[in-house]
Write a structure and sequence with these properties.
With 339 residues, this protein is of the alpha/beta class. The chain has 13 helices and 14 strands. The chain has a single domain, classed as NAD(P)-binding Rossmann-like Domain (Rossmann fold, 3-Layer(aba) Sandwich), CATH 3.40.50.720. It has a seven-stranded parallel sheet, with helices on both faces. A three-stranded mixed sheet has the order 8-9-14, with helices on one face. Helix 4 packs across helix 5, helix 9 (250-259) packs across helix 13 and helix 10 (270-281) packs antiparallel against helix 11 (286-298). It is globular and about 55 Å long. NADP nicotinamide-adenine-dinucleotide phosphate binds next to helix 1, helix 2 and strand 7. This is NmrA-like domain-containing protein. Residues 9-297 form the NmrA-like domain. Belongs to the NmrA-type oxidoreductase family. InterPro entries: NAD(P)-bd_dom_sf, NmrA-like, NmrA-like_oxidored.
């Protein structure tokens, strides 16, 4: 008689202390250790003793003791540190950041740091012989807009990194998140007016639709299902991680229903939007974020994922058996009470 044992597959998770990565850590660890597709997680952080890393560790004390969760150092601008972090892993969850923690984006060239990080991540995954590379990516808006919007670098750079990964690595699956519900916590999306009424204010017509994502929960469950099914079923696929499309004017209506607070849709101008982002992120990001919103305001409503895919092209439900959260689900899960 033969007994079969399954060794858990180790997944290195980049951005493990952030929105998306922390959701991936949670969803991977939630796969029971006795399940045939169980995982151990190598959570990559610049500093395993930072307060953020300690917070992550505190959520999973048993998993750390049992070895199902390890926190390891790794910096996306230091390829050698990534090779060490990826050594012996079966899979990598990759996420890149258009922002630089603690630094402003002064010029458009500054945004190229994301490409540097992406190249390092792909190079380290190649050297380490990673079997399944799952990347949080975004569509190419220069192409989608037929060349009208060529400066949405934080989308197009992610798309370029996804293409590089596909050309260099054996099995790549892309997740493309919608707008993050967490954005409504930012002042350019939502503020209170002088009467204390919650004002949702992105610079788009209220009847315009967009698709959204809970960046932590949704990316987590999609990535965990993709790793569970493995490259045989999911390599080369692109999964949009998006809710059913919602009108911008529905944000206040849903918020009011869940939170019993008055809320309105009252958009700010594109200039105000760009200037607010420039103040907080940096001047080099202003045109990028303006063009993103300009595209969202004209993107075809019948297409999903920032107007880039037909609904029929979305195989997430059929392949993975998952769907992204509604705004109401995110509100209840996060407990957000308004600005
Ligand atoms: N907002 C939206 O609507 C939206 C929609 C789609 C996509 N996105 C994209 O989502 C991305 C941000 O993802 P997120 O919200 O999950 O990120 P996040 O919560 O801001 O977390 C950033 C993570 O990156 C890690 N990190 C920072 N610098 C690093 C470095 N040099 N080396 C290694 N790790 C580093 C941090 O870890 P440590 O500090 O522990 O090192 C942290 O875990 C952006 O690129 C954005 O374009 C946003």
């Amino acid at each position: 008689m033969t007994t079969s044992t399954t060794t858990p597959r180790t997944i290195a998770v980049l951005g493990a202390t952030g929105n998306q990565g922390s959701g991936v850590v949670r969803a991977l660890l939630q796969k029971s250790p006795h399940h045939p597709a169980s995982f151990t997680v190598r959570a990559v952080t610049r500093d395993p003793s930072s307060p953020q890393a300690e917070r992550l560790r505190a959520i999973y004390p048993e998993e750390e003791v049992s070895g199902r969760l390890q926190l390891v150092p790794g910096d996306v601008y230091d390829v050698t540190s990534l090779e060490r972090a990826f050594d012996g892993v079966w899979g990598v969850f990759a996420v890149t950041n258009n922002r630089l923690p603690g630094q402003m984006i002064e010029t458009e060239e500054d945004l190229e740091h994301e490409l540097v990080a992406g190249r390092n991540i792909v190079a380290a995954a190649k050297v380490s012989g990673v079997r399944h590379f799952v990347i949080s990516s975004l569509p190419n808006l220069a192409d989608a807009s037929k060349g009208q919007f060529q400066k949405v670098f934080h989308f197009d750079h992610k798309f370029q990194i996804e293409q590089l990964a596909k050309s260099e690595l054996t099995a790549v699956t892309a997740l493309r998140p919608g707008l993050f519900y967490t954005n409504v916590q930012w002042v350019q999306y939502c503020r209170r007016n002088e009467n204390g009424i919650v004002r949702f204010c992105p610079p788009v017509p209220g009847n315009k639709t967009a698709d959204w994502t809970d960046p932590s929960y949704d990316i987590g469950i999609y990535a965990a299902e993709v790793f569970s099914l493995g490259p045989e079923k999911t390599a080369s696929k692109v999964y949009p991680v998006v809710s059913s499309k919602m009108r911008f004017a529905d944000l206040p209506a849903i918020f009011s229903t869940v939170r019993y607070q008055s809320a309105i849709f009252d958009p700010i101008s594109l200039d105000d939007w760009g200037a607010t982002v420039a103040r907080t992120v940096g001047k080099g990001y202003e045109e990028d974020i303006r063009q993103m919103m300009e595209w969202i305001a004209v993107a075809p409503d019948e297409k999903i994922c920032y107007g880039t895919m037909t609904p029929q092209e979305d195989c997430s439900g059929a392949d993975l058996g998952v769907r992204a959260s509604t705004f109401e689900e995110w509100l209840r899960r996060s407990g957000w009470q308004g600005p």
